[in-house]
């Protein structure tokens, strides 16, 4: 094919894709009756969502320093490192609200697993990952250079990494990993390292807020369906994947081996008496200690089939959902 013809065809495709993106993107024109839905130009509504600032997360002792001298499935992040990651993500979110792109970025695979399993960063993880729209990558990177003046952006292949400026860019420095996704009509494609995976758009959009530490963060509408496409497993497994050691192969264990070490989220249907007229299905998620006691309960938006799913959690036999 002639080069000019090929470039012309690519230009037409780009124009059509852009028009579709702005006119028919499933999170662009949806009526949003619930504070759980993510709006393009607003952050989470703390007056209407459950307050996470006082939620108990005393499920693990963090390392006292940044030496990372820990076993694979020990807690990895020191308190300072954890707070730094939270700071980076807060700044990124504020910037995305200013760009009116808040409803187009969301928790990445590892962080989404953390939200589903622990309501936080996976205890043995050493970083945070997110997805952002490749269509706006240039605008995002420019805005980071303008608004997030105390962050350092480090390009890493098809990804970008965000560090706090005061941190040295070595293997002990935690970072937020930005992976970029692209929408392909009529499917949703995510490109990681040049590899594409495809999902149903309505498994991802419209985005909803999920608990992640002390904050509500954007996440796929059907997080378990989303992860099943990416992590097709038939039984519950827990995976160690190091953000700082990209070439280290993932190590997989049965989550039951970690249940005496860390609490896991148990999902329960909300009591029948509390079901209201909203069309959104909801779930009470309990962070449960090994002794069967719950550290906290957070109400989330989750389809009933996902509430019942045994994937991406570890259920304690000593804990029973309230009737």
TrEMBL record:
Alphabetized UniProt keyword annotations: Membrane, Transmembrane, Transmembrane helix
TM ranges: 5-24
Domain of life: Eukaryota
Record protein name field: Lipopolysaccharide cholinephosphotransferase
Species of origin: Hymenolepis diminuta
């Amino acid at each position: 094919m002639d080069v000019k013809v090929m470039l012309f065809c690519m230009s037409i495709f780009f124009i059509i894709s852009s028009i579709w993106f702005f006119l028919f993107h499933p999170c662009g024109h949806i009526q949003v009756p619930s504070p759980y839905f993510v709006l393009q130009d607003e952050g989470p509504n703390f007056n209407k969502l459950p307050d996470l600032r006082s939620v108990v997360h005393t499920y693990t002792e963090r390392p006292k320093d940044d030496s990372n001298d820990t076993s694979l499935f020990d807690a990895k992040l020191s308190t300072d490192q954890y707070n730094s990651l939270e700071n980076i993500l807060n700044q990124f979110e504020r910037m995305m609200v200013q760009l009116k792109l808040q409803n187009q970025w969301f928790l990445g695979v590892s962080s989404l697993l953390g939200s589903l399993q622990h309501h936080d960063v996976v205890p043995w993880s050493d970083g945070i990952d997110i997805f952002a729209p490749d269509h706006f990558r240039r605008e995002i990177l420019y805005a980071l250079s303008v608004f997030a003046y105390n962050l350092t952006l480090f390009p890493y292949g098809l990804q970008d990494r965000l560090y706090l400026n005061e941190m040295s860019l070595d293997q002990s420095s935690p970072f937020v990993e930005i992976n970029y996704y692209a929408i392909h009509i009529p499917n949703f494609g995510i490109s990681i390292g040049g590899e594409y995976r495809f999902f149903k758009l309505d498994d991802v959009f419209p985005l909803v807020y999920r608990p992640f530490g002390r904050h509500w963060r954007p996440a796929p509408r059907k997080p378990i369906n989303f992860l099943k496409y990416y992590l097709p497993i038939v039984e519950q497994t827990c995976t160690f994947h190091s953000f700082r050691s990209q070439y280290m192969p993932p190590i997989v264990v049965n989550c039951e081996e970690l249940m005496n070490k860390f609490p896991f989220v148990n999902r329960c249907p909300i009591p029948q008496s509390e079901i209201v007229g909203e069309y959104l299905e909801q779930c009470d998620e309990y962070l449960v200690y090994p002794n069967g006691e719950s550290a906290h309960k957070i109400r989330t938006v989750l389809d009933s089939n996902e509430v019942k799913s045994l994937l991406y959690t570890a259920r304690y036999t000593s804990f029973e959902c309230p009737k």
